[in-house]
Amino acid sequence: MRVSEIHAPSSLAEVLEQRRRLPEAAFYAGGTELLREQAGRFLRLPPEIISLGAVPELRQVALTERFVEIGAAVTLAEILELRENAVPELLAVALRGVATPAIRNLATLGGNLATRSRFMDSWPALACLDALAEFRDASGSHWVNVNRIADAEGLPAPPAGALLSRVRIPLERWDAIAIRKVGLRDYPAAETAVFALAARAEKGILSEFRLAFAGERSLRLREVEARILGRRLPLNAKERRSFSGDYREAASSLPPGLKQQFGTLVDGALDLLSR
Amino acid sequence: MTIHFILNGEDVSMNATSADRLVDLLRERFGLHGAQADCRRGTCGKCLVLMDGRLAPSCLLPAFKARGREIVTYEGFAQTDEYADIAAGFAEAGVECCGFCDKGKILAAAAVVERSSRPTKEEILAEMAEVPCRCTDPETLVRGVQAAAERREGRRYRRASQ
Q1: Residue A58: which of A15, A119, A103, A87 has the closest Cα?
Q2: Per-residue pLDDT tens over the stretch A25-44
Q3: What structural domains and CATH numbers belong to chain B?
Q4: CB pairs under 8 A between A and B
Q5: What does residue B131 show for φ and ψ, rounded to 5 degrees?
Q6: Into how many domains does chain A fold?
Q7: A241 and A164 share one domain
Q8: What percent of chain A lies above the pLDDT cut of 70?
Q9: Domain span holding position A190
Q10: Are residues A76 and A148 in the same domain?
Q11: Are the C-beta atoms of A148 and A156 separated by less than 8 Å?
Q12: Best residue in A51, A103, A186 to probe B by mutation, most B CBs within 10 Å?
């Protein structure tokens, strides 16, 4: 049985100070991802733990007309209980799909977004919403677009050693949104992923189109989105085929099951724009 | 480390290591066997407790996470008026749970009626998904939880008007 040292700071300043002293320490908030694969009698936690549950700055929610800021240690259940329109529906739908209510009572937004092993449910929605994540370390505060949490190969790459402290999510009108969890096996596994779509039209012209797909890797094709934008709706058959082909080609490296489902979902999204 | 928390309404403390799960300490230190460590992955619903009024799988809670919190186990909840509301609501609707899931379903029902005085079918089924046992017909379960919520509201109303 391995015993860890638990540190329980009560302010963000203390968290950062402890992090400076203990650079190898792991942050612990909801812990659901860390414990998910541990079925033994005793837990195996990293040797040094910085528990974030009693840090008030990480538990705050601030709402303005233009965006909502959610502390990284706010639980998924608490986010879903915020008043109507305080959270974009795209994110709410994604979070309602996470595990079960009791696990959503423990799991936090920070843990869901900053997991290094894979992309979890919130990433595709937050990527489509162009949310910003604030990371803090000894050098200060750094705001990073959620899309940049993926590296060039599409793998999760939250800034090393930094603490995800809050997420700023723009509140905008969307005319069409979709979230689909795909995969034939228990989630999460190699052949599971989450698909997110957000689109908006102005006077019959497509003014926003964002499509993200993520499991072990992320997929978001900014250049294809840029080519779709500004098209008059409905898309014609030629446009539809062209964009579908672009997405299918980009998905060629996905596992076979995922590739097929991704193609079907992309075609569904393009069908929506073709009606 | 010593962890202080409230367990079934009483201030308690326990010595624990970082490797201990709350479910095991509830059983071994406090003799509360209502929560069972079955899957140890938070999926079977047998270890559920209420933590600060919210449903939580105690197998996914390291003991240190209980510090300063209020934990209610099935045994503690069974002593409350809220339990009586749920037991009566379940009986009225004809809900009969098996020994695998009865405690989890009662605590899940408690979490639903704590949040909503008139829970919808969707709210109830979402919370009941916590306990995957299929021994009870979902429609009957929904009626049972709604009957429990009505009883709870009625009791609160009577108390307020006294």
Answers
A1: A15
A2: 999 999 998 888 888 999 99
A3: 2-77 (3.10.20.30), 81-161 (1.10.150.120)
A4: 84
A5: -115, 95
A6: 2
A7: no
A8: 98
A9: 176-273
A10: yes
A11: no
A12: A103
